[in-house]
Amino acid sequence: MFKSIKSIKNFGIFKDTKMNAGQPFLQFNLIYGFNYSGKTTLSRIFRAMQQGHLHEDFASASFTLERNDGESVSSAVLEPIENLRVFNSDYIKDNVNFINSSVNPVLIVGEPNIELEAELKHIEEVDVPAKELERDQYKKSANKKQAEKDNRLKIVGQVVSALNVLGGSTFTRTGVTPLLTQVTADDLKTSAELDQLIDSARSKQADTVPPASISIPDITTLLGNIESILVESVTRTTIEELEANAVLRKWVEDGLKHHHEPEVCHFCKNPLEQLRIDELNAYFSDSYKNLSKKINHAIKQVQEIKLTHSIPKATNLYSDLQQDYDSLSDQIQPLDERVTVIKNSLIEALEDKRERMEEVVPFSPSDYPMPDVSKLTWMLNGQIKEHNRRSLQHGAEQTKARNAIKRHYAYVETSEYDHPGAIKQIQAFNDEYQATQTEIIRLNTRVREIKAELRNVKQGADNLNDNLRLYFGKTDIEIQPIGETYQFVREGRPAKHLSDGERTAIAFAYFITELEDESLKDTKPIVYLDDPICSLDSNHIYNVLGIIKDKLNHEKIEQLFISTHNFEFFNLVKTWFDYYKLVKRDGEVVKPKRAEFYLVNRKQNASTIEQLPKNLKDHKSEYAYLIAKIKEAVQNPERFDAVSVQAYVRKILEVYFTFRFNKPFRANNNSFLEKHLLIGIENSSAKATTLYEFINDRSHAQSISFGVELPDALQAQLQDVWDIIDEAIRTNDKPHYDAYYA
Asked: Which residue has the higher pLDDT, 588 or 141?
């Protein structure tokens, strides 16, 4: 590894340069500089060390570099450094002949092995494509059958979900699949059963209800009393009129109660004879009266007999229980009617006895059985108990109903589609697919074996083509070994009229491929890359960085130098190199610093290698750096040339107008500056003219690049111009001013 530059004298723009910014070179070194600053010149120093001789344009120059082992490399005594490789414009000119569309071979090309080439061609063009087609067809068939099977299971889940019985849960294909092997014919439900399950699954938890009660009084004693009344008889005198007319008899009987010592009839006011009163009292004797009272009391008791019940409403029960419950409830009315019939029969028997008090009226209690309500009560309470059980176990019952619904539809699916058969078909397709894939792997292994045998034949060409395809997407240009050279071919003919970007891509791919040359076998190279992205678009800049990171990482190289003027590429590499910064933990170094950053800085007619300024290192754009340079030029004008400073000012305004006003800067004149940049500024018109003339009429550089011939002194107007810009941005864009200008 190189440690530092001890001196460079009269090597192009490097007149008398010592050290490299006081910072030793590390494993990774990034060098930034504008065009014409001396980057390529610096790379030529390294190329001279690679080749062992100075470039003819620098015959009188001298340099000395120090290596890590303490040895020095001097231009006075140059010998080729075997592991040093430099990519720059000289390398391209020496190795790539764009006129003849050829490059020097990386390896010596031997005679081709015709048999291996033929076998390789047949495997790659016939065997592998055929097997891949066969494999893909098996995979397609397996996927198609799997999709058909999965879709049916998905539909089962959708059908159940559409019933709105799942609550917050889901029923998808994964839920249906295990049921297919679990369900039996017992899981198939009738329409009525399914409706009942759906109702249960949808139902909300109901309140428990009290038990039903039905009662009829025990009339066994009453029947005994009635029997004793009906067999009791009384003896009395006979009065024909009363015997013949029960109503009259009743009327007279009641009237006697009001004529204990009467002389006059209270009804007709006629005199009453004692004889008549005695006759009537004889007819209505005490025994008669007592029996009559018994009859009246018994009738009153019979009339008090009734069926009583307390039955919860059917609507309080779960819907599937309501029909049976209603049917049972309807049986209460017939029972009540039977009780009424018995009551009426008993009253009728007692009234009949009243007409035949002197007779013994036959009576059998067994002829008047009261209905048994215990069974009906038990059946009603059975429904209520079932309801209450469900209410108390609503969650479990609902889950049971949902599972039954799922199993029903899963069983229906098994009866309509042969899922086990489909699984066997899918497995068969997959087995064939795997067998074919195994054969393809075997064929590809054979391809690699053949290519390994042929590698010594065209290793370099293959690798070069791979690099072109992988990193630059170049499939239209192919490198072919022709005789003692590699020729790049497009559509079977030598590739002519290559673009600058294509030339850079081919040259850099060739350089990277050359690093795999046998001359570097088991050796880590020192690599210097000077603007490897020249003429490439932004997309390919990323590709170049990709190949560098892949081929030239810390495990594969001894030391890497990259120089560039492209700020986008500079930032990408800087971001990568930041990975190799010093890392400490608790004061201990856990990862040593491996990367350093430099600036090739041209002042007047000489360049130096300096440490990368903080503004360039910490920011993602040149903008902050250019502002810092202008401030430095204002303070120390003797260190700068007019052309570069005027270019700095122009570039600053170009960038500012782009993001501040979204307008191009160069297409506008001083009136545009007055309307936008200098709005609200005193004497804006005069200041706009001063600013415009400084950056246009008196500027000899058209971009940020340095000119070749530089004026001797800085324009006197720089202080005034910078004051104008400073005032304008401070006044009209304070946040931006504070961020960049303050």
From this structure: 141
Which of 557, 507, 515 minimizes the C-alpha distance to 532? 507
Q: Could you give the CA distance from residue 734 to residue 740 in angstroms, rounded to a whole number? A: 10
Confidence of residue 111 (pLDDT cuts 50, 70, 90): very low
470 within some domain: no
Q: Residue 329's domain spans which residues?
A: 217-233+287-372
Whole-angstrom CA distances from 285 to 217, 280, 281, 289 are: 35, 9, 6, 6
Categorize the per-residue pLDDT at 712 as very low, low, confident or very high, splitting at 50, 70 and 90: very low
3-state secondary structure 617-634: HHCCCCHHHHHHHHHHHH
**Average pLDDT over every residue of 571-588:** 85
Q: What is the dihedral of CA 171, 173, 174, 176, to 10 degrees?
A: 70
**Which is it for strands 485-490 and 493-494: parallel, antiparallel or unpaired?**
antiparallel
- Average pLDDT, integer, range 563-584: 87
Give the domain-ending residue among 579, 603, 627.
Answer: 603
Structurally, how many domains does the chain consist of?
A: 5
How many other CB atoms sit within 10 Å of the CB of residue 71? 9
Neighbour-count burial of 271, counting CB atoms closer than 10 A to its CB (0-12 exposed, 13-18 middle, 19+ buried): exposed
State how far the Cα of 251 lies from the Cα of 696, in Å rounded to an integer.
147
pTM of the shown model:
0.48
Mean pLDDT value across the chain: 84
On the question of pLDDT at 50 being above 80, the answer is: yes
**DSSP string covering 593-608, please?**
--EEEEEEEEETTEEE
pLDDT at 107 over 60: no
Question: Is 635 inside a domain boundary?
Answer: yes
Strand, helix or coil for residue 590: strand
Cβ neighbors of 114 (< 8 A, separation 6 or more) are none
Sign of CA pseudo-dihedral 373, 376, 378, 380: negative
Same domain, 624 and 732: yes
Q: At what angle are helices 128-162 and 419-472 packed, to 10 degrees?
A: 130
Amino acid type, 4: S
In a domain, 188, yes or no: yes
Q: How many Cβ atoms from other residues are within 10 Å of residue 283's Cβ?
A: 18
pLDDT of residue 262: 64
Instruction: Of 161-175, 575-589, 634-648, 690-704, give the range with the top mean pLDDT.
Output: 161-175
Which helix (H) or strand (E) segment holds residue 559: the answer is strand 559-564
More confident residue, 670 or 561: 561
3-class SS of residue 379? helix
Closest by alpha carbon to 476, among 461, 495, 463? 495
The closest alpha carbon to 595, from 612, 616, 614, 615, belongs to 612
